[in-house]
Amino acid sequence: MLSQLLGDQGAAWVAHIWPVVQPAGISGVVGYASGLLVRKVVQMVVLAAAILITAVQGLAYLGWVTVHWDRVTADVQKLIGGGSEGGMDASQLLALLTDRLTAVASQGLPSVAGFSTGLTLAFMPGLQII
Questions:
Q1: DSSP symbols for 11-26
Q2: How far apart are the C-alpha atoms of 114 and 105, rounded to whole Å?
Q3: Is the pLDDT of residue 79 over 80?
Q4: Full-prediction pTM beyond 0.70?
Q5: Residue 128 has what pLDDT?
Q6: Contact of 33 with 117, CB cutoff 8 Å
Q7: Residue 115 and residue 119: Cα distance in Å, rounded?
Q8: DSSP assignment, residue 56?
């Protein structure tokens, strides 16, 4: 059937590249699914953080609590290694997390390139494959 559609030369070409394309396709689907999961988790974490900060700020506005935002900022900078001691900025932290996510989630997959492509496609704004 394939040779009827593509001809003998096209069928031979597809048979030649199929061992390379098939693992990349499977890895791409796994990468896309992982990306969707990570994107949803990040959205939920950001929403929870926004609700928490809004609630604390509302309580501070009402005078029920006192928030020392300078201490909060200093503690967060220590946590992520930022500040004057030469730690990471936000882009370096994001790059590190992306590298680690790709390394962990693609362990044992036949094609890291396919996984990375699928993961990237899941994070593209406005693109809905599923």
A1: HHHHHHHHHHHHHHHH
A2: 12
A3: no
A4: no
A5: 61
A6: no
A7: 6
A8: H
